[in-house]
Amino acid sequence: MELLYASCVGVLVTCGIFLLLKARTFPVVLGLTMLSYAVNLFLFSAGRLTINKAVVLGTSSDYADPLPQALVLTAIVIGFAMTAFVVILAIRGRADLGNDHVDGHIPELSANKKEQS
Amino acid sequence: MTLLWIPLLSLIGSVISSCTAKLSRNATATLTLIAPLIALAITAYHAPAVLAGETLRYTVTWVPAIGLDLSFRLDGLSLLFMFMILGIGTLVILYARFYVSAQDSIAKLYSYLMLFMTAMLGIVMSNNVIQLWLFWELTSISSFLLISFWWHKSEARRGAKMALTVTGAGGLALLAGLMIIANIVGSYDLDTILASKELIQSDALYEVALVLVLLGAFTKSAQFPFHFWLPHAMAAPTPVSAYLHSATMVKAGIFLLARFYPALAGTDIWFILVGLTGLATLLFGAYVALFKHDLKGLLAYSTISHLGLITLLLGLDTDLAAVAAIFHIINHATFKASLFMATGIIDHETGTRDMRKLNGMWRYLPYTATLAMVAAAAMAGVPLLNGFLSKEMFFTETLSSEVLGSMSWLIPVLATIAGALSVAYSARFIHDVFFNGDPIDLPRTPHEAPRFMRVPIEVLVVLCILVGIFPHFVVNGILSAASMAVLGKDLPEYHLSIWHGFNLPLLMSAIAVVGGVFIYMNRKYLFKFQASLPPLNAKKLFERVVYRLVQWSQVNISNIENGSLQRYIVVLLVVVLLCAGWPLFEMQKLAGSAPLAPIDIHNAIGAGLLIIGAIATVIWHRSRMVSLLMLSIVGLMVSVAFTRFSAPDLALTQLTVEVATVILLMLALYFLPQHTPKESSSLRVLRDLSIASTVGVVVASICYALLTRPLESISEFFIANAKTGGGGTNVVNVILVDFRGFDTLGEITVLGIAALGIYKVLSNIPIFSPTKDGEGREWAKDKHPVLLASISQSLLPLALLVSAYIFLRGHNLPGGGFIAGLVTSIAFILQYMAHGTTWINERFDVNYRKIIASGIGIALFTGMGSWLFDRPFLTTWFDYFAIPLIGKTELASAIVFDLGVYLTVVGATLMILASLGNMSGTTVSKEVKI
């Protein structure tokens, strides 16, 4: 199961970074969101994988590690705030600059290529 | 304690002066004079103890763990410099009152001067090398301000920039040198460093440290080949030149050499570097000074030459040479300051400093002329004046030096030549300006300067004469105290007197005087020869070098930082790969010793869905809506994973955040294109894919390595104390609101800041309202769907009830402020979607910024509440109460903190989504459908 979990994290990281390297803002935001899933899962795994051992006292004799859970909980909320900020920035950029390229302008090189193709 | 007041007073004086712009010039000058006079009195009060050989210290510890203290010391050398800084500073302030014209702000000049005085006092009094360096840099900055005082003149700006560049670069070298020394000794404390001569000099890095420190000293003291900034700094007002270039700024470099003399000097490399640099500077300065037509230019090169003389003395291998160096520091400061001031009067009265025009001033300014002539004679080394005595000592020491081995005889010969040149330029100063026929078209007819403008010169000239005639009575005390501080041991025998009998040094003096007069008489030929040499303009050369450097840097920067975010991310990722991937190769085995869990069918299906969702997001990324839907599968599976692996709180949070995120991104798609154009070449895709998958493999490997190792956690403490210490059974929530409540406070603050940032980014956005989606279809025109509107309306109270329930039970069961806040927000967002913003705003008019502020405020004040009970910040209080109808219930202060969290989350989430929704509502006449 550990191998499966690690592979999932790896796939999320790969997909997230691939999208992060795109030239338009929206895929980058998607990539960031995906990357934050991966990071949260990764941090969560620092407490190891346990089944049916939720840390509510009195429900079990042995508990999962609560500390990574607490840290990841706030990370999720902050991650949301940051995603929101980036996407709003993208909207503002589009409105001010007239395009949604991450550099604020469409580079000459790719514009030429588009014409050729 | 009184030691601290000396630099502090001058700093306060700087502030006071800067506030006196509205007062008359007399009042400004009087107010400004107070601080240095008190400081001078304090210094004088301490003088007897210091002259008796004591070293006074005052230390305030700041960060003792890394050796950073505010630490002052007062020994003989510091005392001497403090007298010069404060004494000449006072005279300069008085002088400047009459020099500065009514158009210039004298308050500003005084403020800068006092700031500079503070910096100089800081240097000479520091007992911590980092502190010393800090004041050192402050002199560079304040001298920049002083030199560029007439900022409307190009030469002043350029001169100031050049001085700052050269001395600032030297300052950086000095910092590096001091760090190395402190590292060798293991302390920043100056006392310790000065006592560790053997340790420093036996270290392998001694040479490096020495060269770096010398670079700092030589740039500051305008030693050859770093001398070129000093003549250009003459663009400053003359009082500034008189202060900076006689007693202070350039002497700071000399002070540094003297200060570190006990720790760094005594080795061959010291004698070679310091001695030869001094000798070269001495000769070069004296030679160039002869050809300067500008009075201040002559004085500038003469200053360079005299600084070279002092440096040479510090680089000679005899103890008496160091004493002579200190003596010449005093003498040079007195005669050079008075000469600058006299030049200022001449400039002020005639409107020019060109010696080809200035002739016969004797007739117009007899009084100033007399004073200037005495000072210039002191500079030339004429008997009965102070310059003669130190020059005699200098000649004596050059004779006994063995620095150059068998060629050491060169030193006295070259010294005599330099002496002759100095006599020649002094003679030129006297003869060309005050005699030599009539003035040639002067801009103004000169009159004698105001009485009080001459007082500072008189004081200094009287000192020149007194020292020259009664050296033993006037300076012996302070000279021996200062020399003792430099040598760090008992002084050798020496006698300060005007007559030592007929000896070799006297003969050298005589040759110098005769030779100097001879050179001056035949200056015509020398000038002709000099004119035939190719001109070398240091300023142009310097500016060209700086310009090339800037250009070179710009080309390189634009190559590295070309504005492409994609490239930056690639670079960052590659660095991460190298740093994170490298240790993996050094590990023996990836899997650890912990037993592995078997894969069951539920997990396998979940993982499969997650992977399919992630890959589908990438495959369809150009079709944005589809891609977003695929992403939401991933988010959902992540929350399922949290549920599965015993983290109900996380699962609830992830689920609610997921909803909010997807709604937000859908809203965003209204303003962004629906499709991503195909831009990347196949090669680019291949590159991106390989980088992404390499990072993925590295992260997965680390994750696997982590998962398969036994767990050692500090969480036992939290589990054991959650109930007894925090009063709750849901340990995750107790950690959030109690154990690590400070973190949570910080995080809700970040949340609030992000929301406010979004509000700000969206305000005043240019109107941009697409009427069609990406495929050219018009947005639907119908109003809000009735079904959604009516169901959502009835759902609202239920949702709020659920949220209240989740909030209240959060301390003991999965739930809490974060989750409850998100549930409430989503309930409201549903209303926004079903009814539109106008409808909501009519019924529910709240300022979300206030909600955020009150949330953070409640959390903060709850935390501070524990101070009232003498407990640390954010300590939870709880107890059990029997409440009628409900029964025994626990009440904890943590729930109030959690309320703050709840309010912040509600405020921030709603503000983010509602301001985006509002925008679409205001820019388009109809509401946006999602």
Keywords:
heterodimer, A: 117 residues, Helix Hairpins, 0% strand, elongated, B: 930 residues, mainly alpha, two-stranded antiparallel ribbon, 37 helices, 4 strands, 71% helix, disordered C terminus
What do these coordinates show?
The complex is a heterodimer of chains A (117) and B (930). Chain A has a single domain, classed as Helix Hairpins, CATH 1.10.287. Helix content of chain A is 68%, strand content 0%. Chain A contains 4 helices and no strands. In chain A, helix 1 (2-20) packs antiparallel against helix 2. The longest helix of chain A has 32 residues, at 66-97. The radius of gyration of chain A is 20 Å and the shape is elongated. The termini of chain A are far apart. Chain B is mostly helical and 930 residues long. Chain B contains 37 helices and 4 strands. Chain B has a two-stranded antiparallel sheet. Chain B has a two-stranded antiparallel sheet with strand order 3-4. The radius of gyration of chain B is 39 Å and the shape is elongated. Chains A and B meet through helix 1, helix 2, helix 3 and helix 4 of A and helix 25, helix 26, helix 27, helix 28 and helix 29 of B.
Strand content of chain B: under 5%
Largest sheet of chain A: none
N-to-C series of helices and strands of chain A: HHHH
Note the overall shape of chain A: elongated
Number of strands of chain B: 4
**Average of pLDDT of chain B:** 88
Strand percentage of chain A: under 5%
Helix content class of chain A: 55-70%
Indicate the radius of gyration of chain A in whole angstroms: 20 Å
Global shape of chain B? elongated
The end-to-end span of chain A amounts to 46 Å
What's the number of structural domains of chain A? 1
- Class of chain A, according to the CATH hierarchy? Mainly Alpha
Instruction: Give the assembly state of these chains.
Output: heterodimer
Largest interface: A-B, 87 and 112 residues
Enumerate the spans of chain B where pLDDT stays under 50 for 5 or more consecutive residues.
922-930
